[in-house]
# Entry
Amino acid sequence: MSIFSPKQPNASRVLRIGAGASYAGDRVEPATLLAERGALDYLVYETLAERTIALANMERAKNPELGYNELLEDRLSAALPHCKAQGTRIVSSMGAANPLGAQRKTVEIARRLGLGPLKVAAVLGDDVLDYCRAHADTLPIMETGAPLSSLAGQIVSANAYLGADNIVTALEQGADVVLTGRVADCSLFLAPMVLEFGWSQEDWDRLGKGQVAADMVECGANVSGGFFADPGYKDVPELHDLGYPILEVNADGSSVVTKIEGTGGLISRASCLEQMLYEIHDPANYITPDVVVDFTSVQLDEVAPNRVRIRGGTGRARPELLKVSVGIQEGWIGEAEITYAGIGCVERARLAEQVVRERLRIGGVSLQELRVDLIGIDSLHGAQSLPLEHPPYEVRLRFAGRSADRKNAVKLGNEVETLVGKGPGSSSLPRKSVREVVAIYSCLIPRDAVQARIVMETA
# Structure
């Protein structure tokens, strides 16, 4: 049985959902424009990637007050006044590893701006680190089949992909802003559809269609020309001023994707096709926490400039297991780059590589992996790169080494730095850095291992 109280769908209602972000560091002003001029029912900020939430967990471990999206204050300070004035509700994964911290900050912002009363919900329960640590011997890694306990590094985070159900519950309880941790990206968009149209959680056909619509905008401006332009082949007007997309959803699950008139970018059948195929391994069996989606019957039609109608698609019963993104601390990466210029720059760069390799051997520097690239020549395709027709006048030499301890990662950068004055001539000053390696693995856990709950605060 559905956990929602089914309502009669309003067949005449068109639900407007704006996509205000698609990753942690996305732009602030396009979402503010959506809030101001988009006539939205909902504004969604999707800000999580697998590595993003692992790093957020590490940040929270250092400071319990942090671990939510660092742009939350900038985003909400700009958009909340417009949303409050127009009755637009916000749904976002900006809670990251600390939804309660994000909730406290949002209440503080609302009070400072005098926007109360405002109800802010935090959705908890995606953090399953304790469960994964307790079952590490029996949970197989999806990528390898080996148990989690076989990994050499320390498990620093484990977050289950929750679905739309808890967001719907928070909205039913009157939340004006819903802040989650790790939920499936499209679930942020699907939840308003379920609530507003009264869809049953077992109405797989409508859920499938809603998921298709959500998939079109969950990467934000990708569907409106971002990461699409190729001058002369796929021209995008005013790429610097991309309009972020808006979904217009009907009660039957069909929809139109569009953007605010006068903004840059392009919403076309081609841009929508590229986005629809992005990250989908099996178009007939796309697994989400809410529904298993079949994209094979989807139809896309340009019905007007920057308006594409989405029809078709369907769904089947949701899976009984939830995917978990597991973050593993696997050591350190040392990186260093140095540029050589002038005639013979490639030969001098290759000599510099030999010098560094020998110095690492002499110094007994232990690296599990070392990669050396000539950027612009072989850094992407390696030995398969095309031969040069003309010798370059400059080249960037890049070293990257992975080590179990920070000390050896630092030594790599130091040896590259020492090339200045002790290596080939005519180089730039190098740039070097050291960072932790956070590797991401996946596993599956039973739904009943997740104990989700909602905390509500009022500003």
Remarks:
- Confidence is low (pLDDT under 50) at residues 1-7.
- DSSP finds twelve helices and 18 strands in the chain.
- Residues 326-441 form a domain with the Alpha-Beta Plaits fold (CATH 3.30.70.1120).
- The longest strand covers residues 321-341.
